[in-house]
Design brief:
Binding site for Mg(2+) 4 (chains A, B): 25, 40, 70
Organism (chains A, B): Rhodoblastus sphagnicola
Distance between the termini of chain A: 34 Å
Strand content of chain A: 15-25%
CATH class of the largest domain in chain A: Alpha Beta
Structural class of chain A: alpha+beta
CATH architecture of the largest domain in chain A: Alpha-Beta Complex
CATH superfamily of the largest domain in chain A: PurM-like C-terminal domain
Helix content of chain A: 25-40%
Radius of gyration of chain A: 20 Å
Oligomer: homodimer
Family (chains A, B): Belongs to the thiamine-monophosphate kinase family.
Catalytic activity (chains A, B): thiamine phosphate + ATP = thiamine diphosphate + ADP
Pfam families (chains A, B): AIRS (PF00586), AIRS_C (PF02769)
């Protein structure tokens, strides 16, 4: 099967009209009038960002999902995406069939099609890069840099599930046995790791009130710090307010040392944002209408503090995941 | 050096204002009014698309150049680009310094900046994917599919230099000795392989008259066939009209069997296009004004033929390079 046949069989069916059936040099799309374009790219490598043994449809959905999560953090509506795929020597058609099925489903869930890309051979591990395009009303992209002292800090969903899921998945694959803290919810946590749920539904709430936003991909603590650095401010976070799921709470109860994993492990693909106090009610109402849980975890201030329940400061030796 | 430091040192200086210093989740750009967006992505892997020993600045310039060549073929003006870079275990800062210098120069030559991207680690070979964005007046993108019988077929520049350059480079690296046909122009041919020159200057000429266009990346014969397939037509090509450079002519004189290499080897990054006869004069005048040589090599017809000087038909066993 040559490159053209492979594209025609597995990827052309995912192309929207702008993708021209993936038979041209480029895609063409008319940007929505009065909008700015929001553009992001993320790469994933087997063995670094996922396990080669992960389900192919989940690998694809994750590669797209992490990019859609960036768009969601900017309150952008997705327009389309491009995929660069480097296939290792042992790729199979069965892999590509499942991979493209997962990619198509994830794209359809976000209402977008494949615009183009490239498929190449590599002697190394499976490597993917996706570029996603989105749109926001002109001048309205929510940046990381707009947080101001006094703004409230919110986070969507729950934190740490995917990092715990990764630890469970790693134990399953590399050691063949679950860690001692794995409970009845292991499969749920692993699923959170495998299949990010980009928070595109939060867009109306963010547009109504956020002064700054960012997606939580590399660890909540480090990502909050990155947003605060961009804003020239600092975060005061009440650690006890950070939302955990029932599975994560059970794991933390079994092994309290996992707290650092949940707060710095990354792969959450939730949104952390700063909301000026007079917009907080509207933000909460719109988030609730979108059925996205949001939790106030602190406030933007002049000096950083991460406080425990008893008021003592907590320090993080390693605050986020670095991909290099 | 962590991911943020690496981006700050080597890539943030290449970012245009839309890239927000590469410190946000995404770039934001206001599309030019009245324009469509043209988007393309190409990936390159060390050992497949280039040699790991190639100069780092040339690797970078080529990765961007092959994408700009796609935009040039669509008569699109470049707006910006994103880079996904997977670094192998032996990457060095010296490599990144040269790589980012070459990327910056290639971007500046096209008048564009870096919009964003991702840097990750791989256990495999150096892998790059670039997505390039461009703009064309609304509805005016030149597709592969618009060629009609009677249109004249043109190609820009000269064909085969890069394929011969690749053969020379391969001999140099893998065998440590030049092939028997390598002449005084070997360095020139290798340079054509290492440093594509995207034909962005041809945009006014293409907009004035082309019914279809495509960049020649995978071999002239196969690329002409791809454009004709998209157009539901066929090409009649006079092989003796295909333009060769003096270095390529010298190589072909020394070893006539290299003709297939020049016509099917790829990496030319020239433009092949179809021009209705009544637009041909304007097309030629505007190409000449842009200082891009264009050569008429045949005509769009109902049945394919690639004819030698004496009128005999030539068949190509393998018509293009496939990357999978």
């Amino acid at each position: 099967m040559n490159e053209s046949d492979l594209i025609a069989r597995y990827f052309a069916p995912l192309a929207g009209p702008e993708g021209l059936g993936l038979t041209d040099d480029a895609a063409v799309l008319t940007p929505p009038p009065g909008c700015d374009l929001v553009v992001t790219a993320d790469a994933m490598v087997a063995g670094t960002h996922f396990f080669a043994e992960d389900p192919p449809d989940a690998i694809a959905a994750k590669a797209l999902g992490v990019n859609l999560s960036d768009l969601a953090a900017k309150a952008a509506e997705p327009l389309g995406y491009l995929l660069s795929l480097a296939l290792p020597p042992d790729w199979t058609e069965a892999f590509l069939a499942e991979f493209s099925r997962g990619l198509g489903e994830a794209g359809r869930a976000a209402g977008i099609g494949l615009l183009g890309g490239d498929t190449v051979a590599t002697s190394g591990p499976l490597t993917l890069s996706i570029t996603a395009l989105g749109a926001v009303p002109e001048g309205k992209m929510i940046r990381r840099s707009g947080a101001r002292p006094g703004d409230l800090l919110y986070v969507s969903g729950t934190i740490g599930d995917a990092a715990l899921g990764l630890a469970l998945r790693r134990a399953e694959i590399l050691r063949g046995a679950p860690p001692p803290w794995a409970g009845a919810h292991a499969a749920e946590l692993i699923d959170r790791y495998l299949r990010p749920r980009p928070r595109l539904a939060l867009t109306p709430a963010l547009r109504a009130g956020a002064s700054a936003a960012m997606d939580v991909s590399d660890g909540l603590i480090g990502d909050i710090r990155a947003m605060m650095r961009a804003s020239g401010a600092a975060a005061e976070v009440d650690l006890e307010l950070i939302p955990f799921s029932a599975p994560a709470r059970a794991a933390l109860a079994a092994d309290p040392s996992l707290l650092d994993v949940t707060l710095t492990g990354g792969d959450d693909y939730e949104i952390v944002c700063a909301i000026p106090p007079d917009s907080a009610e509207k933000f909460e109402v719109l988030a609730s209408a979108a059925q996205v849980a949001v939790t106030r975890i602190g406030v933007v201030a002049a000096r950083e503090s991460f406080r425990e329940r008893d008021g003592t400061a907590r320090h993080f030796a390693r605050d986020r995941f670095s991909h290099v």
